[in-house]
Amino acid sequence: MEIPKDLKTLYKHWKKHTQKPQIDVSEHTQVPQDLKYFISERMRVWERKTNGDKPPFTKDNVLQKFRFCNIYRELDKQTIQIHKDLKAYEDNFSLWLLNLCFHRFVSRPETIFSVGHLSFDRKTNEKVFKKLKNIPSPKYGNAYVFPISVIQKSKTPTREEFFCFCLPKAIKKISPVIQGFNNLSVNEALSSVLPQFEFNFKFHWTEILIDIAYQYPDKIDLFKDFYIGPGALPTAKAINPSTSPVELVNQCIGVDIKDFPYLTYEGQKVYLSAENWEGIFCEYRKYSNLKRGMGRIRKYTTRNV
Question: String of b and e for 178-189 (b: at least 16 CB within 10 Å)?
């Protein structure tokens, strides 16, 4: 399916992701049929909803009842909201990055829309701080749980203080580092960013680097070595316990999934990157657990894409 027009112009990485990855797939890399089925059917759920079909969008009992992220993460509702909100800042990388981090740490776009954006001006951030303190709950999302314990012994021990007064200083220091990146892998970028940030937010910074790759694809290459989160590790071990998860994901990049409804950009296939495959491993673990009557329940609604 061709990428919808609004998403075509929202992100800048599409053309780069139509370039076929030059990867020699190991003869031992076998993507399970159940995983192939899962990603194909989950993608068709998105297609059917995008085309305006009426629910249910699938006959699969688990996919019909429970919520899963999209196979292409850039299709997720919250990611779309964030990138639309920050579109005006794309020519000011430091300001864009500051508010991207604010979005990902808060993990609830409605809160950002209510309190406004951060800046590198103390007075502006003091106004945001007051609004953030007074806004009623829920004001923080749970998609990317903020590790409050990491900041409790710092000079800005609350989320509100950290976001409004620590984050601008940190981003002012980190922004020129990232602007100097040239097609780094996410793992390479993490090793540069985390020491500068001085707080262990590895998961959040992985997500932020993905967002950077969507808008500044010359800085981060999502087809290179990617951080494998704990949610994806069980799937990696089940597929091939003798191969490192990072290498296994790299191998999967080169696998062409028959009958998978790839997105297309100007008629060319948008290949699944290492970032896509890490997300697939994570979502498939949830799917396979729910098939067995196990795991965390996240109910699907017709509002979810």
Answer: beebeebbbbbb
